[in-house]
Amino acid sequence: MSEEEFFQFCQMNDTLEFERDSYGNIILMSPTGAFTGNFNLRISGFLFMWNETHRLGQVFDSSTGFTLPNGAVRSPDVSWVRNERWNAISKEEQEVFAPLYPDFVIEIRSKSDGLKYLKDKMKEYIANGTSLGWLIDRFDNKIYIYRSDKNVEVHDSLHTVLSGESVLPEFTLDLASLIK
Questions:
Q1: Is the pTM of this model over 0.85?
Q2: ∠ CA 27-60-156 to the nearest 5 degrees?
Q3: Per-residue pLDDT tens for 153-171?
């Protein structure tokens, strides 16, 4: 399917969520469980509040599709794009799957997610320009931090305070406080 055909396909099936990989394969995304959905929203809320204070970019939810440079259309659980990059695309491009990569992404593993699939997805974000990404695996109690230098840092506990580093200045997230 072309970009437009895929967008229309998703609109016609708006009760379902899809992604498309760089080979054109369509991936049906299953809904998350209630705990994961709440956990995702709470994390999104912290990023949203930080962004309201700093006004450096735009925050997006898990329903937002981005067309990456490799042609994949991905929907991170939480994402953020710097204002100058967001404002550089047209209003028409903002209404469809935006043709840009997020500067920051979070993927939260739910019961229906395979860890290898999520790790591959995180590598894809980084390979396509994303500067910082967090993969939060609450089932194995691990956090994987992906950076543009391709190094992956692994924390063997969710009792970690994550930093937005230079991508999200002054943003921190205390995961332990969210897991209670």
A1: yes
A2: 75
A3: 999 999 999 999 999 999 9
